Amino acid sequence: MLAEKNGFYISTNKEYLDKGVIHQFLDHDSYWANDIPYEFVERFIEGSFCFGIYAGEPSSTNSRQVGFARVISDGVTFAYLADVFVLSDYRNLGLSKWLMEEIMKYEKLTTVRVFMLGTKDAHTLYNKYGFEVIDNSSNRFMGIFKDNMYRQMKLSEKNNS
Questions:
Q1: Of 11, 97, 119, 146, whose CB is crowded by the most CB atoms within 10 A?
Q2: CA nearest 22: which of 59, 64, 77?
Q3: Does the pLDDT of residue 128 top 70, yes or no?
Q4: CA dihedral sign, ordered 75, 81, 87, 92
């Protein structure tokens, strides 16, 4: 998939992804994946539907990746939206809304029955696309949450050295 709007592009072609940009943001600028190993970024790209946002045609040498999101899904019944970001210099341009529009209409995800995500601060954005807080979900949904897992792994490695 390739979509264009005002000189920006969204593509699902993994060959265009700048893993360095993705790793840099997640490792240093996100609140949810600090200290994530680069190899984990490579692995999750391989196992996800990925959406890159680019300033300029992504196949061009002048193109720059400015945002990202991924969806972990079987492509039929379940999906989990993760690692959504737009670099700070490109915020307030409507790119995150456009990204969500493209994800929600992406052909390979249109049959998904359960679509989930986790956020501390972007509820307003996701509400616009039908996401609701799961509160006392009739005890249907359960989870395991390992906050700061990558930081703990890094500390453990240092202590064992």
A1: 11
A2: 64
A3: yes
A4: positive
